Structure formats: C-alpha cells, structure tokens
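hey all, quick one before standup. I had two proteins in the batch that finished overnight and I want to keep them in one place so we stop losing track of which output belongs to which input. First protein below, input sequence then structure tokens straight from the run.
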Amino acid sequence: MDSGAIVNRKMRAGSGSRPRFGPLLCPLLRPALWLSPCRSLGSPLGLPLCLSLGPLRRSLFGLLLGLLLGLLGLVPLSALAHDTEANDEPPLQPRWAVEGRDWPGRSASDFLEAAGIRWHYQLFPATVDADAGVDADADADADTAATESPAPVVLLVHGTGAAGHSWYPLVPELRQHFTVLVVDLPGHGFTSAPPPQRLATAAMAEDLAALLRALDVEPDWVVGHSAGAALLAQMILDEQIAPAALVSINGSLLPRQGRFARLFMPLARWVINRDVVARRAARRLGDEQQVAELFEQAGSPLPAAQIERYARLAQTPQHTGSALRMMAHWRLDRLEPRLPELALPVLLIVGEADPLVDPEEAVTVAQQLPRATVVTLPERGHFAHEEDPQQTLAVLRRFLAQLP
C-alpha cells in the first residue's frame, strides 16, 4: 500500500491475516523466556518465539503456559515467595541527575505531585522557530514555557515500556503550531510507580486525568502510541478529556485474553508483581545491544542514541517492572465494547511491518467507530513514529488539515 494511503473503514481483513496476540501477552512471554538464567533456552527462543513459532501464536493456552514458565524461570520459587533475593539492592527508579543527565528536552521538564504520584512531564510552548532540530540540544525557549498558551494543546502519550522521550523526534515541528505536553506514565521513565493495581487501564486514566487537572491543561487533540492510544480512548469515554480528535499509532485497542488467559492471569499477576522479578528483568535488559535487538524484532530499528536512552531506563527495576505490571493488569476487554461510543474523528496510523499489533486490527477497530480513518505506513514497525518521524508528521498534517 502506498505511503499515507487511506483505507476505507468498512474494509474487511483478509482471510490470510496473521493471528492476533499483539503487545499485551507476547511481550510478557518474550522477555520472560529471553531473560531466563538458562541462556540456551532464553536467548535463541525468547525473542522470536511470539513472532515466528506457529503453535504458540495459535494457542493462547500454550502462550500463557509459556509465559508462566518463563517468568518462573527468572528466579527461584523461594525468592518469589518471599519477594527477596540475596545480595540484591531494593528496586530503583531512573535518577534524574544520572539517567536523565542529558535527556531530550530536559530544560522543558518539570515534576508535579498528583494522585499520589510524582509525575515527570515536559511542556513545550508553541514557537515559530522553524530551525528547531530533533536532537537533545533543541530546547530553545523551553525554559520560558508557560502553563497557559493561546496555541492549541496536543497531549502525547507513550506506550508500555517507553517514556516521553519517544516523542521527541516529533516535538520540534509540532511546537511550531501547538503547545506540546509530554508525560511519563506511572512507573515509566522518571514518574514514580503507584501500587500495581493502579497500572490497570481505568485506574491509570483516572491518575492521568488528575495530573491534567493539576496542570490546568485541557488538550485540544491527543496522540497515543500502542497502549497509550487505549489509555486516551478510555479517558475520552470516561469524559475525563474532550479533545477534537484522537490519533492512534499502532494502537493496542482490542483484547487478546480468552478463557484460559483469564484463568491464568491472576497467577501471572502475582509472579509479575514480585520485586525480585523486576530486579532480574532489569539486570538482563540494561545492555544496549540486547535492547537494540528487541526493537529490531519489533520491526523498528532505531538510532543508537535512542537505543541508549531506552537501555538507561530498562536497567532500572521500577521502569521494567512497571512495564510488565502494566501489561499484566491491562483490561482491554472492558474497553472494546465501548469503542463505538467514540464519536470524535479518529486517525489510526499503522506500521505495515508491525509484528506486535497486527495492522489488520486497525481495520477491525475502524469498523466499530463512527468517524475513523486508517493510514498505513509501508515497511514501518511498531515504533513507526520514532523510526520515521517525518512520515508520521506528514500523515498528521494531512489529517489535521481535514478537520473543521
């Protein structure tokens, strides 16, 4: 399909479409096996398992069994039971003075307490500076950011395991027309972690709404990547925000939990909630080469500088543990029946080469929405907006130009 091609929302998925397990269970299984102390099992099988092994992709029961076995392989059962590990430090979150020492848009960063969470957010005021770059030094005027601006406000929400820095390649152009608000979701990046149950969809929507109230910000339109799109949809349906449009980039909007999954998820949540699992996972994920391989498996090879930033976060137990817990507590089965209530214009951007969220899912979602448009980005993976920010911005410009 050509770049930026619009797919009619009534179009039906082809009979040969790939099985849909997506980013909720597959990433839980993939790191669980890959992070296993038994590298002979973890390294060769962990990364490609969900992407290439047909039996597990087609059997949700097998997927859940693999998930639990993989997670249990991370640590001894005694350590899981007591949630301790000998000679191990307590879980740590990324440190602003260390991991955040040269963070993109750093001078636009601030911290605020809301809903019992210490949030890290960045507020970039609108500017006409057309020469703004896309590197970490492109922070001109950010230190003079005001909490109020006559320019429209766009809210950017990242997905599971990412942070606000994932949007930075888009910020310089967006702020030529908008005030841009970027947040680190709870437990991600430099935002503190709430109790695990607050990482569920509806609870996280409530907490993000509390932050917006504290900032006195009402976003005019919103953009979400992967699980971030589902979070924004939840907030719109719960009338916590009222944007003019919703943009989803490889949005994870459909549930993948069958009967067997529902039976096993309580045990999976118990395992994933253990701090010792987060510590072991972070220890394995702190290597840049390993992180780069994960993004390649997601269909989106990224620049070395961006990989290095992800590795800084992944080596901290709070970030990695919160990503796992968010996936374990996510409840898209409660969101899907309400999708037809989204009456606003919705743009569904999909990467043609996304192995985590089947691109055909966007067509399925669009069939349920009153005002949906699907645009496919050829040869782009799950992190299409980071992989090719200019193509993503071009699609956004065309969509916004069509809005009343």
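OK second protein, same deal, sequence then tokens:
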Amino acid sequence: MGVFVKIILVFALFITVFFAENKDIGALPKGAKVKIYGGTIELLEIVNPEIIKSKFESRFTYDKSNNQKLKELASKYKLKDVVAGGKTEFDRMVFLSDWVHRQFKKFGQPTKKTVNALEILEETQKNGVFYCAQYSSVLISSCYSLGWVARELGLHKLLGNPGSTEHSVTEVWSNQYRKWVILDPTFNIFIEKDGLPLNGNEIRDEYFRNNGEDLTYVKGAEKQKYKKSDLPIKYRDLAGFSVNAAYIDWYSFLFFMDNSDYLDNPPGYSNKCFMIVDERNSAVKWHKREVPKDKKEAYWTLGEAKMSLTAGGNAELKIALTTNTPDFDAFLVKTDAGEWKETGAAFAWGLKPGLNKLTVTTRNMSGINGPENSVSLKFEQ
C-alpha cells in the first residue's frame, strides 16, 4: 500500500512539473502557486499586458531614426535642450509641443506649401504664416528626432460651430502612460481626465457622453489647467481663434493618416488611411475611408516587452520576449534592484530562495526605453 501511495505521489509531482513546464506562468492569477524543478513559486505581482496589434499599423509608415533630416532638425534647433527640463517623458513631450507652438508667429493661409519641418521652421523665422497642419507636422518630425513615435489626426466638426470645420492635431505614443495621447501644438494644449492625458477617441467618447463636462484642458509647459467653465482660452497669435466649449466638437470625426515621414513624404491621404465614424456622427458626410470594426485597432500598442514564462532547469524560469517596437534596438532586463542589461529574446532566469523580481523593457535605435513590464514572485526550495 505504501509503495502504491508513493507511486501516486510521484505521478502527481510529475504532472505538476509537466504543467508548469508547458504552461505560461505569466497567464496565471496573482497568488497562484506552481511547482517547478527545484521548488515552488508563488506569483505575487505581474505587469505584462497583451500587445495590441492592428492591420492598420501594417500599412502605416513610420519615420526612421537614421533619417539625416531628423538628425539635422534635432541638432539645428537643439531639441534635446528644449526638453531637458522635463522630469518625466510626458513632461518632455509637453515641453516640445510648447516649443513648437512658440515657433509660429501667426496663424493663417500658408506662405509656403510644405509639411517639411525644416522648411516650415525656416519660413517661420521670416514671419511665415501657417495652418494647424503645419504645426502638427513640425511636432511630429520633432518627436521622431528625439526617438518618440507620433502621427497626425485630422478632425472635423459635427455641429458646424463657428470657426474652421477642420483641425489637425498630433497623437504621440507615451511609454510613460502606455497609450497614445493627443498634443495640440496649435493651441498648445492637451486634454486630460482624472489626471490622465487622453487620446483622440477618448476625447471623442467624452464629447458624445456629456459634452466634455469632466475634461481638463492643460495649456503650455507651465501646465495651466482649465475646466469647461473656465473657457475660453484666448491667444494673441491665432487670428481670433480660441479654445472654447465647442473645441471638442472637432473630435467628432477622427481621420488617421497613413504615414508620418513628413520630412521626405507629405501625407498620403490614400486608402491606407482610416477613420473613426459611428452611428453618432454618420449623418454628416466627410471623407470616406475604412472604419475599424473595433476601435482598439486604431490604437495599437508600441514598445512593450511581452513576457512568456515557463519552467526551465533547476530553480529557473525560461523567459521569451516579443515586442512591436518601431526602430527596435534591443531588449533590456534587470533582476531585483540591479542594473539594466541587454538580453536576447529568450533567456533563463535563475531564482534564489525568497523574493525575486524581473523587469524587462525595450530600447529603440534612438535610445528611448519602452514601458516596463515586470513579474514578482516568491521561490521556495
């Protein structure tokens, strides 16, 4: 009988180890305990979001860090110095948007037909005049020159409020917030809710939900905040334009450009572009482009180092990393409170008795790190 019990126990142990070796431990719930070779792990905490992929990204053209025009832009205008005072990545992005806004002296019919940031900035020094599309173009290329990914959104009003029916803004991928966020360099603002900066579709949803009653408009590098009741925000250099309560009506329609390499190629406006339109604004006619079935497709994620964790050899886990990072350079890893080190896409993580923490991220060719993913666990031999 004793032999029989031992056989059952050995078989159960084999099954447990087999399970751990073939199952992605990172997909287990917090608090799960798993037997691996050499001991037992308890999953304490994990940050490891899924990578959102999209067919729309596959037809989108990013700019490249090896573009000499980007290097010229960053060097000529000392853009690293422009953003140096920012304490966080998003602070630096806001500083850059603020700087772009201040390069333009007057808003109006462009004195030169171009979306090339170098040409636009040269023209502004001669008191050249430009529209919002050129503000956005300069911010997009300036972002790429510092290693950040950005894209242009075209907007269109639903209600026909006074002023221009169309507007252009910039969406930047924020590694800090793990999301796309809107920066409007024309009006030198971004929009937040509960302290979190919003992307175009989030602003759109707030507009249709309650006309933006819960939104905060944040202006300039000083981040002066305005609630809806504080509007309008007035500007000396925008020919009578202001940020008023009707501003977010522009976000009724979202038109996503198919490229952002504006130093070499203007916006394509091709059928690779796509739009967000639904029953809330379909009665108003504007451009016609493909509409994502799921709005998440418009908001693919970047820079994440997605982890897969399975049992490895004695007291170790096998880690496999995947990512979607434009201009990808390397994966980085650190254990516990150690230093960042480069790693391959697959490696073994040796565990010590007690608490263990693994943190991973990506780095692009401009030296910008992506969001940090991590797993914390307790290991008992």
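Flagging for whoever picks this up: The chain has a mean pLDDT of 92. Residues 33 and 42 are 4 Å apart (CA to CA).
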